[in-house]
Write a structure and sequence with these properties.
69% helix, single chain, globular, Ferritin, mainly alpha
Length: 157
């Protein structure tokens, strides 16, 4: 992921925000698409919930782009690092609950890395805070998914 991040170049804050909006739309659409495709109702609900979270991120970015403000809450997320050891998993219509969690965790890791990168590259304090907030949100998603994986998958094995 870091190699592709180094190839990102933006000429304005609006360009960065448009890129972030497109990534949130892509994530939302991914979760909705797979919620429609998977057979397991439990997986469907988790995927729909995450689609809603990605929509909230998009709405926040658009609000900031329009000149709105946002609040940040100090927070720390415990990284279980379970997803750090996965082999790349590709989604398919018959994926198991375990595979769906793996795919979602991998996507959240990528989103978290992206926002950390954008924060580190930002000279505008508001943009830095926005990207830090979004990175924290993605890390919360990852934590929740890893807890589900730990409780539902690892305890079964």
């Amino acid at each position: 992921m870091s190699e592709s991040l180094n190839n990102l170049h933006f000429s304005s804050i609006n360009e960065v925000l448009d890129f972030a909006v497109s990534k949130e739309e892509e994530a939302r659409d991914f979760y909705l698409e797979w919620a429609d495709k998977v057979k397991n109702s439990g997986i469907k609900e988790v995927l729909k919930e995450f689609a809603g979270e990605e929509q909230k991120h998009k709405d926040l970015i658009l609000k900031v782009k329009a000149g709105g403000t946002f609040t940040t809450k100090a927070g720390e997320v415990i990284d279980l690092k379970i997803g750090d050891y996965f082999v790349q998993t590709n989604p398919d219509e018959t994926m198991t609950y375990q595979e769906a969690l793996q795919v979602a965790i991998q996507r959240e890791i990528g989103a978290q890395e992206l926002y950390k990168y954008l924060s580190g590259r930002s000279s505008d304090q508001t943009m830095k805070e926005l990207f830090d907030k979004l990175a924290l949100e993605e890390s919360k998603h990852k934590q929740r998914l890893e807890q589900m994986f730990d409780e539902d998958v690892l305890t079964e094995n």
